[in-house]
Specification:
With 393 residues, the chain is an alpha+beta fold. The chain is 39% helix and 28% strand. The strands form four sheets. An eight-stranded mixed beta sheet has the order 6-5-14-15-16-13-17-20. Helix 1 runs parallel beside helix 6 and helix 1 runs parallel beside helix 10. The protein is globular and about 60 Å long. The two termini are 41 Å apart. The relative contact order is 0.17. The structure holds flavin-adenine dinucleotide (FAD) and 3,4-dihydroxybenzoic acid. The site of 3,4-dihydroxybenzoic acid has 10 residues, from loops.
Length: 393
C-alpha cells in the first residue's frame, strides 16, 4: 500500500490531521491499534479553546459542536470555599467551548467515513522504518497478515505510549519531565452541573474541579493519591469530599447521583525534543503531556495538527518546505508556553505532600492577588482561551 502521509494513531490528532489533509487533496492512511468502539468509549478532555473550535469547523465537523457545545465566557476560581470569577470575554474578548473529546472523536470518525478516508483499526505491531531517509515505510499486522505502507512522511499521533517517539534515537532525543505526587479522581454523573461555568478550587484538603459535558452530564474531580484503590471511593465518599472543597453555595446546591464512570488519572508534565526527525513528525501526546489543570492537553494536540497541516499543505501544494523544516521549533515554542501555564495552575491549586502552612499561605496570596488584579486575571484569561499561533494574535 502507498500513501503520501502515514498517520499512526486514530485519536483526535491523527483523525483531525487526516481529515484536514484529505480536504486539501493529500492522501493519508491512519493506523490505530485499538478497536473503534474502544477509542470512542474513552472519557477525556472537556474544554476546547476557540482556536480548536475554529480548526474543527474548518475540518467540516462544526455542526454538532456549535449545536450542542456550551460556549463559556468565564470560569470560577475558589479558595477557602469562596469563589470569584474570571471573565474571559471582558478581559481578552474570547471564550472557550465545552464539548467533550469523546464527541470530537465521534464526529471525526463520522466525517472520515463519509469521505471514504482510510482508517485501519486493530493494527498490531506497528513499526516505523527508514524514517531518516526519503522513503520511509510502516509495517503492521492485521487479522494475522503482515502489511506495509510506503509513504513520503509519517505523522506520529500515537499518544504517550506509542512507538513513534521511541523511533528517534536516544542521542538525538531529549526528554523533560515532572511527575506530580498526586492524581485526579474523576467521576461522570448524569446530573445537572452545579454551576453554569467551571469551578477550579484550591482547598486545604486538596484541589477540586466542577466541570460538565452537557446540561445533564457533569464531570467532577478531586485530587487524590494516585495509587488509591478505586474501591475505597464509594460515590457517597466522593460527593462528601467534593462538597468540602468547593464554594459553600455550590456545596449546598449540588445535585448528586450515581457515577457512570470513575477513574484516577496521574499528573505529569513531559516534553520530547525535537518534534521532527527526518521524515517523522511527532504530534500531540506523542511529544508532550501536560497535567490536566487548565485543559490544555487536547488543545495542544490540535495546535500541533494546525502547524503540521499548514506545513504539509505548503509542501505538497506550493512546493515550499519551510514549514516542514521548521515544524519542530514552531510547535515547541507554543508547547513550552502551555506547559508553563499548566504547571503554574497545577502548582497554585493543588496540595503538595510536603506543603507547609507557609506554602499554603503563598497559594492563597496568589489567588487573592488574582482576584484583585486585572493584570493577573488578563494573563490567566489569555492563556486559558489559548495562546496565538505563530506568535501572532
Ligand atoms: P491520544 O488521544 O492518546 O491518541 C493516540 C492514539 O494512538 C490512541 O487512539 C491510541 O490507541 C493510538 N496508539 C497508541 N499506540 C499505538 C500503536 N502502537 N499503533 C497504533 N496506534 C497506537 N486533557 C484535557 O485537556 N483534559 C482532561 O480532562 C484530560 N483527561 C485525560 C484523561 C486521561 C486518562 C488521559 C490519558 C488524557 C487526558 N487528557 C485530558 C489529555 C488529552 O486527552 C490528550 O491530550 C489527547 O487525547 C491527545 O490526543 P492525541 O490524539 O495526541 O493522543
Ligand atoms: C475538564 C478537565 C480539565 O482538565 C479542565 O481543566 C477542565 C475541564 C473536564 O474534563 O471537563
Amino acid at each position: 500500500m502507498r500513501t503520501q502521509v502515514c498517520i499512526i494513531g486514530g485519536g483526535p490528532s491523527g483523525l483531525l490531521l487526516s481529515q484536514l489533509l484529505h480536504r486539501a487533496g493529500i492522501d493519508t492512511v491512519v493506523l490505530e491499534r485499538r478497536s473503534r468502539a474502544y477509542v470512542l468509549s474513552r472519557i477525556r478532555a472537556g474544554v476546547l479553546e476557540w482556536g480548536s473550535v475554529e480548526l474543527l469547523d474548518e475540518a467540516g465537523i462544526g455542526d454538532r459542536m456549535f449545536r450542542e457545545g456550551l460556549p463559556h465566557t468565564g470560569t470560577y476560581l475558589s479558595v477557602r470555599n469562596r469563589g470569584f470569577r474570571i471573565d474571559f470575554d471582558d478581559l481578552v474578548g474570547k471564550k472557550v467551548m465545552v464539548f467533550g473529546q469523546t464527541e470530537v472523536t465521534a464526529e471525526l470518525y463520522k466525517e472520515r467515513d463519509a469521505m471514504d478516508g482510510v482508517v485501519i483499526d486493530e493494527a498490531e505491531g506497528v513499526a516505523l522504518h527508514d524514517v531518516d531517509s526519503e522513503k520511509p515505510y510502516v509495517t503492521f499486522t492485521k487479522d494475522g497478515r503482515e502489511h506495509r505502507v510506503d509513504c513520503d512522511f509519517i505523522a506520529g499521533c500515537d499518544g504517550f505510549h506509542g512507538p513513534s517517539r521511541k523511533t528517534i534515537p536516544e542521542n538525538v532525543r531529549q526528554e523533560f519531565e515532572r511527575v506530580y505526587p498526586f492524581g485526579w479522581l474523576g467521576i461522570l454523573s448524569e446530573t445537572p452541573p452545579v454551576s453554569e461555568e467551571l469551578i477550579y478550587a484550591n482547598h486545604e484538603r486538596g484541589f477540586a474541579l466542577c466541570s460538565m459535558r452537557n446540561q445533564n452530564l457533569s464531570r467532577y474531580y478531586v485530587q487524590a493519591p494516585v495509587d488509591d484503590d478505586l474501591e475505597a471511593w464509594s460515590d457517597a465518599r466522593f460527593w462528601d469530599e467534593l462538597r468540602r472543597r468547593i464554594p459553600e453555595s455550590a456545596a449546598d446546591s449540588i445535585v448528586t447521583g450515581p457515577s457512570i464512570e470513575k477513574s484516577i488519572a496521574p499528573l505529569r508534565s513531559f516534553v520530547a525534543e525535537p518534534m521532527r526527525w527526518g521524515r517523522l513528525f511527532l504530534v500531540g501526546d506523542a511529544a508532550h503531556i501536560v497535567p490536566p489543570t487548565g485543559a490544555k492537553g487536547l488543545n495542544l494536540a490540535l495546535g500541533d495538527v494546525r502547524y503540521l497541516n499548514d506545513a504539509l499543505r505548503a509542501f505538497y501544494l506550493d512546493g515550499d518546505d519551510h514549514g516542514v523544516e521548521t515544524y519542530s521549533e514552531t510547535a515547541l515554542e507554543r508547547v513550552w508556553k502551555s506547559e508553563r501555564f499548566s504547571w503554574q495552575l497545577t502548582t497554585m491549586l493543588h496540595r503538595f505532600p510536603e506543603q507547609s502552612p507557609f506554602d499554603q499561605r503563598m497559594q492563597e496570596a496568589d489567588l487573592a492577588y488574582l482576584e484583585e488584579s486585572r493584570a493577573a486575571q488578563t494573563s490567566l484569561a489569555e492563556n486559558y482561551v489559548g495562546l496565538p499561533f505563530y506568535g501572532r494574535p
